Amino acid sequence: MSLLTTDRARRATADPAGPTADRLARPVRDLRISVTDRCNFRCAYCLPPEAGSPAYLSRADLLDFAAITRIAAACAGLGVHKIRLTGGEPLLRRGLPELVRSLAEVPGIDDLALTTNGWYLAGQARALAEAGLHRITVSLDALDGNVFARMSGVGASVGRVVAGVRAARDAGLAPVKLNAVIRRGVNESAIVPLARFAREEGLVLRLIEYMDVGQSHGWQESDVVPADSMVAAVAAAFPLVAAPPAPGAVATRYLYRDGGGELGVISAVSRPFCGDCTRIRLTADGRLYTCLFAAEGHDLRDLLGDDASGGALRAAIERIWHARTDRYSLLRSGGAGRGSVEMHRMGG
């Protein structure tokens, strides 16, 4: 029997749908906020260099922090209790600790996290922690300097990112998680070294199947390293046992038999987990999306002007969620496919 359990089995303990449920009885629990579509990296699975120069949003197009906080508060009123800040690269957004501080004060939000490529993290980790950030995830696709430089698309130094990881851990943003997107023929060799590094440093590694988000990366299913194979590679070096499923989590979790920490695997291609997805996504220019693979969003800007109480905003978000039927990964598995917004604009 595979170490990777089926979607239904590992989701059996998920929270029951609350009053704000979509058409498939999935509650809204998690809000992902992209604070910028800009990034200093050009990773092949997100913003490949061969796609040319992207048409980034102007500063005037970005939601200000007050507007973001209002939308977050409206979502919290519908059942959201977890927020993750994303990009692009979120640490490019000026004054980000100010937004963190504001979001940390929203009633009902008990988990505030951020995903970053780590390039600017060493200089900002402590300020983010002091502002109220709870956790941080760093994208780290390889420890080998040459492989990492190639995957970053800009020749970036892995040493600087590792320094950021350690700064975040030392600032108390624990546990620090590492996200590694594994692509066949590119960084399969990184799996075991990343697992070893995470064990030694007290971090949580999450291995991610290469996904078909966006239009510019030329995704092919043959490039995907299935989660089963990734788990087997780690288990051969460091024996694993399956961990109890966490309600609402997208990663299948494992524990090292010797007590050396935790491994997570995100299997959006080989084992879709759409069945109880509880995530809603806000782009930097104020569009709300109900799926990572969505092609169309809902513009919230017009609701931010005269709605002092936030009632109209909350009602609009509730209507959007109630109408939701998204299950793209399951449809893809059946041979269906469609265009989706680029990853750097949507947020991972």
Description:
By secondary structure, the protein is α/β, with parallel strands linked by helices. Helices cover 28% and strands 16% of the residues. It has 11 helices and 12 strands. It has helices spanning 7-10, 65-76, 96-104, 125-131, 145-152, 158-170, 191-201, 227-237, 311-322, 328-333, 343-346, and strands spanning 30-34, 82-86, 111-116, 135-139, 177-182, 204-209, 240-242, 252-256, 262-266, 279-282, 287-289, 298-299. It has a 12-stranded mixed β-sheet, covered by helices on one side. Strand 1, helix 2 and strand 2 (82-86) form a beta-alpha-beta unit. The two termini are 31 Å apart. The model is unreliable at 1-18 (pLDDT under 50).
Write the topology of this structure.
Blueprint: H1 7-10, E1 30-34, H2 65-76, E2 82-86, H3 96-104, E3 111-116, H4 125-131, E4 135-139, H5 145-152, H6 158-170, E5 177-182, H7 191-201, E6 204-209, H8 227-237, E7 240-242, E8 252-256, E9 262-266, E10 279-282, E11 287-289, E12 298-299, H9 311-322, H10 328-333, H11 343-346
Parallel strand pairs: 1-2, 1-10, 2-3, 3-4, 4-5, 5-6, 6-9
Antiparallel strand pairs: 7-8, 8-9, 10-11, 11-12
